[in-house]
Specification:
Elements (H helix, E strand, L loop, with lengths): L3 E4 L2 E4 L2 E2 H8 L3 E5 H14 L7 E5 L6 H9 L3 E4 L2 H9 L7 E3 L6 H10 L3 E4 L2 H13 L4 E8 L21 E2 L3 H8 L5 E7 L9 H20 L6 E3 L18 H12 L5 E4 L3 H4 L3 E11 L6 E4 L8 H5 L5 E3 L6 E7 L8 E9 L6 E4 L21 E5 L2 E6 L4 H6 L12
Parallel strand pairs: 4-20, 5-6, 5-13, 6-7, 7-8, 8-9, 9-10, 9-11, 11-12, 12-13, 15-17
Antiparallel strand pairs: 1-2, 2-3, 4-14, 14-15, 14-19, 16-19, 17-18, 20-21
The structure holds ligand LLP.
The site of ligand LLP has 20 residues, from helix 10 and helix 11.
Amino acid sequence: MDHFQLLNGIMHCEDVPLPTIAAAVGTPVYVYSTATMRRHARIFREALADLADPLIAYAVKANPNAAVLATLAREGLGADVVSGGEYQRAIAAGIAPSRIVFSGVGKTAAEMALALEGGLYQFNLESLAEAEMLSDVATALGKVAPVGFRINPDVDANTHAKITTGAAHNKFGVPIAEALAAYEQARALSGLAIQAVTVHIGSQLTDLAPLRRAFEKVGALIGELRAAGHDIQVADLGGGLGVPYDPALPVPPLPAAYGKMVAEVTRDWGVRLVFEPGRLIVANAGVLLTEVIRVKPGALDPFVIVDAAMNDLMRPSLYDAWHGIEAVAPKGANMVANVVGPVCESGDTFATGRPIDQVEAGDLLVFRTAGAYGATMASTYNSRPLTPEVVVDGDKWAVVRERRSIEAMMREEKMPEWLRASA
Ligand code: LLP
């Protein structure tokens, strides 16, 4: 459920009509609903109510906007970060260091030092070489780093190839068959305190079976590690639960079903569980609001050219992702259209041959389910400024990232001395 609904024929975000935001801020613009973010954080927490003190570490990569992080921090969520930048954002948003997990396959010594100095709950290590570097960095700072290894369980997560992470050929984690050896070798690293096993097999998962298989492997490994004398107190089960994008497809498993499965599988583990949901919390809390520039005839269907493009929302061009497209003021008639942006690539296509509300130049549309991996993956390709972001809370709304001017973008570039003289 989300809080983007028609009220008197006009789509609102909570109590705010979207045309009000478009008129004040311009388009394209991302609009986020506080009520939906809160609702999803609570639903996930309730789904895990049978577990003892779980740590829900929101995957900052899904949407790192400061206002989004502050909203989720107030809901008691921690943060899963994968860069120094995300760590700094989480701290700035008021997330306690004791609720921050540092993941990622290529942490640098500088990022390790930043998090060690500021404090964190745990580093999720992806290789022995990384463990050695972290131990050295921690020792030099006079600290001991709390860690777990991310294992690669070699399960097929049954999702898009570009967002599957737990298959043997993926770059992530320590192969499960080598995990015990990695823990044995890491035991000798005096800068580390081994406390955890971690796993994350992919994103937009629409089936619990691969997650269950991966978790069962983690459970077996915890047993082996304890038998070898490792004091495992934490298991981080990652994120990955899918959300509904296309209403024509079966609804992904609900958080309650996920929570029940987790409770069953982990019943005897005797650990604190950590979760890293991203998409589930914010995807349906956001839309990308855009205006139709013009409608151009096409060989098959007309092209609806909107002022958002692949640089603003990359998911369709990158993963062939499906996003719902709805008119902000539907007229009760439909058309079949190709919905495209103005960028000079044929891949700048949001939908092909899609039945949508009838629109013409000047009408507003939304791309739905754009709160996760939307604004954060945007680029300035074709010299298009990064899309601004707005947060709504009831009848209040605020711009939480401004649209940068092209002048500001140009000022960031410096002319080398030899090109400064006039031609
Ligand atoms: N934890 C780790 C270690 C991750 O790599 C990810 C996502 C998450 C948690 C959060 O996963 P979620 O609950 O959001 O599925 N840009 C892609 C998704 C990439 C996901 C990368 N890792 C997309 O737009 O579909």
